[in-house]
């Protein structure tokens, strides 16, 4: 027999001003005392999977897009223009939808992930892309899940990763090692150590930013947070461009239509649409699960290079891709089982209606 269940959810605009409202979530289910919890977790799992899949595909393609944009544009200007335009667009959307201008404390809180994740994390990858193949940059970025797991473990109150997560990390790392030894796209050549170190530093910076956002007590719209992070990160990237002398040598007249289209994709699809999804995912999932996109991105980047630039793919490359995907499956499956075994309350913060944060009462 089918029944309708209405659940009460507590909505908070900020940690200091909590208001209780009633949201009606209708679950059509069989009669069972545990049905509401299982359906809610199931719906959340679908959202998590969809968000992860979107980030896997879109951000896996940004390495190729950055490579195309670099054909006629300098690195820090590419990223600075991208995030200033995208951040401005998101901020306008927030204001038009009834949001308020953020205060000084909001900007300060957003500046930390904006600088660490966007200016340093993204900027380092684009800068290193001048001398490194896009596949190498993507491979090095796969260090991110390892950094986040180790940092979580080292922080006060951090728990040792479970067996499933350790197996997933081992499979992903083994896939990365095979991929590096596969000889695909010049992977066996000598690369500038400075460029390699730059990307590694960027992954460390990104991991710190992800943990900062995860542990932050500030609540609000993922859209607003993305806008502020992009604007602060974009402004910092423009400063990097000035220090790197890019303004003196660059002219918009030299931008080709090919690079322009790549920039448009980076601004609209990879930034305006995807960064709010990422910010929601950081709040809704564990840092380790969120960081699995760094394992999948190299696979997407390599296959796109094969499709677009006719780069050769060895048998070792295909085998390593399978290991990487198995590693991601192991981590996500472990996280899903952990969510199902949690008590009555959902173990994550969910993005609420109208940019509010919903937490279960």
TrEMBL record:
Q: At the top level of its lineage, which domain of life is listed? A: Bacteria
Q: Which GO terms describe its cellular component?
A: membrane
UniProt-listed InterPro entries? AA-Vitamin_Transporters, EamA_dom, EmrE-like
Q: Does the keyword Membrane apply?
A: yes
Which SUPFAM superfamilies does this entry report, sorted A to Z?
Multidrug resistance efflux transporter EmrE
Query: Which stretches make up the EamA domain?
Result: 54-180, 197-332
Q: Where in the cell is it found?
A: Membrane
Which keywords label this protein?
Answer: Membrane, Transmembrane, Transmembrane helix
Q: How does it sit in the membrane?
A: Multi-pass membrane protein
Q: Where does the protein principally reside? A: membrane
Which residue windows are transmembrane per the record? 39-57, 77-96, 108-129, 135-155, 162-181, 193-213, 263-282, 289-309, 315-333
**PANTHER family found in the cross-reference section:** EAMA DOMAIN-CONTAINING PROTEIN, INNER MEMBRANE TRANSPORTER
Stated family = Belongs to the EamA transporter family.
Q: What is this protein called?
A: EamA domain-containing protein
Q: Which organism is it from?
A: Noviherbaspirillum sedimenti
């Amino acid at each position: 027999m089918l029944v309708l269940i209405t659940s009460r959810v507590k909505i908070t605009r900020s940690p200091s001003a909590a208001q209780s409202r009633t949201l009606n979530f209708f679950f059509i289910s069989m009669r069972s005392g545990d049905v509401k919890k299982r359906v809610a977790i199931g719906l959340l799992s679908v959202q998590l999977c969809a968000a992860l899949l979107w980030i896997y595909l879109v951000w896996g393609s940004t390495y190729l897009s950055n490579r195309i944009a670099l054909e006629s544009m300098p690195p820090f200007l590419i990223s600075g223009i991208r995030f200033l335009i995208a951040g401005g667009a998101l901020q306008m959307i927030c204001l038009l939808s009834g949001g308020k201008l953020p205060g000084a404390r909001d900007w300060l809180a957003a500046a930390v992930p904006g600088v660490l994740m966007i200016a340093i994390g993204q900027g380092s990858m684009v800068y290193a892309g001048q001398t490194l193949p896009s596949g190498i940059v993507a491979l090095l970025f796969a260090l991110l899940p390892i950094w986040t797991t180790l940092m979580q473990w080292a922080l006060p109150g951090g728990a040792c990763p479970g067996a499933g997560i350790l197996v997933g990390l081992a499979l992903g790392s083994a896939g990365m090692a095979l991929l590096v030894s596969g000889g695909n796209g010049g992977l066996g050549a000598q690369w500038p150590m400075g460029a390699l170190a730059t990307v590694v530093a960027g992954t460390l910076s990104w991991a710190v930013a992800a943990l900062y956002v995860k542990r932050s007590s500030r609540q609000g719209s993922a859209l607003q947070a993305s806008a502020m992070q992009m604007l602060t990160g974009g402004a910092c990237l423009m400063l990097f461009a000035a220090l790197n002398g890019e303004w003196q040598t660059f002219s918009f007249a030299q931008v080709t239509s090919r690079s322009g289209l790549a920039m448009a994709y980076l601004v609209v699809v990879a930034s305006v649409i995807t960064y709010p999804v990422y910010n929601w995912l950081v709040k809704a999932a564990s840092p380790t699960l969120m960081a699995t996109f760094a394992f999948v991105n190299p696979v997407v980047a390599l296959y796109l290079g094969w499709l677009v630039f006719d780069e050769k793919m060895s048998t070792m490359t295909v085998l390593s891709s399978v290991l990487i995907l198995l590693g991601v499956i192991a981590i996500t499956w472990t996280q899903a089982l952990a969510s199902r075994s949690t008590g009555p309350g959902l173990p994550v913060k969910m993005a609420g209606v109208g940019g509010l944060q919903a937490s279960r009462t």
